[in-house]
Amino acid sequence: MQIVNDHITIAELRDIAKGFYGDLVKAVVDIEKRIMVVGGDLHADEEAFMLQNGSAQKDLWGINIYPAGEGDQWIEFDSMINIRPWQDNRSRGVDNTELQKKIREVVQDLVKL
Q1: Where does the chain have alpha helices with state H?
Q2: Mean pLDDT of the chain
Q3: Does the pLDDT of residue 96 top 80, yes or no?
Q4: pLDDT value of position 72
Q5: What is the distance of C-alpha 57 from the center of its chain?
Q6: Is residue 67 within 8 Å of residue 74, measured between CB atoms?
Q7: Which backbone phi and psi does 84 adopt, to 5 degrees?
Q8: Spatial contact of 45 and 2, defined as CB atoms under 8 Å apart
Q9: What is the mean pLDDT of residues 72-101?
């Protein structure tokens, strides 16, 4: 697993995807620190890694990145760690569109061509 706090390229994400799921990379985004972790087998592992490195759970959201995807299709909001009734998120997705926007902004800032 690696924390991405500066940038990562699409090519690097493709290489990570090949080692795990073929077409996707699991990632956990910290919307407060504007960083993410990639390269874990499970979102829960990545979440634990971020918590050990000083992130707050309320700021962590699990996504899948499809490096070959285009437009809005390259980020998927689907993770068990996103089920948080205490934050008004009752699904594996991210129900709040403003929160989705924040997550997209962080990912777009960190992923370079």
Answers
A1: 10-19, 43-52, 97-110
A2: 95
A3: yes
A4: 75
A5: 13
A6: yes
A7: -145, 85
A8: no
A9: 95
Question: CB burial class (10 A; 0-12, 13-18, 19+) of residue 11?
Answer: exposed
Residue 41 vs residues 3, 9, 16, 27: alpha-carbon distances, Å: 14, 19, 11, 10
**C-alpha angle 10-95-27 in degrees, rounded to nearest 5:** 30
Q: Which amino acid is at 44?
A: A
This prediction's pTM: 0.94
Could you give the CA distance from residue 111 to residue 90 in angstroms, rounded to a whole number?
Answer: 28
For the chain, state the CA radius of gyration. 13
Report the b/e string of 39-57 with b at 16+ CB within 10 A. Answer: bbeebeebbbbbeeeebee
| N- to C-terminal Cα separation, the chain | 21
Q: Which residues contact 49 (CB under 8 A, 6 or more apart)?
A: 1, 3, 28, 37, 40
- DSSP assignment letter at 85: G
